Hints:
The protein is mainly α. The chain contains 3 helices and no strands.
Amino acid sequence: MFIEQYQQQHWGSSARGFWQSFGQLLQNLGRRMERISQLSDQRQQLLEMDDHMLKDIGLNRTDVVRLTGWRWFKSDPLFSGKS
């Protein structure tokens, strides 16, 4: 009887902890995916700007190509590396 009660308490709290951690993981993943989507939209807008518009915001075509290159996922100025 004691063992059954212990197992129920132990497994119940472990399962709760697991689901809480899993839920946090999914929330963090969702926030990260949303941020990637925002960055993608912003970079697409930069690509669509003409040279005069870019000059107004202090960029040139070379800057835009560099900012929108294949390493887009590493260059998020707001991402600290912690999810």
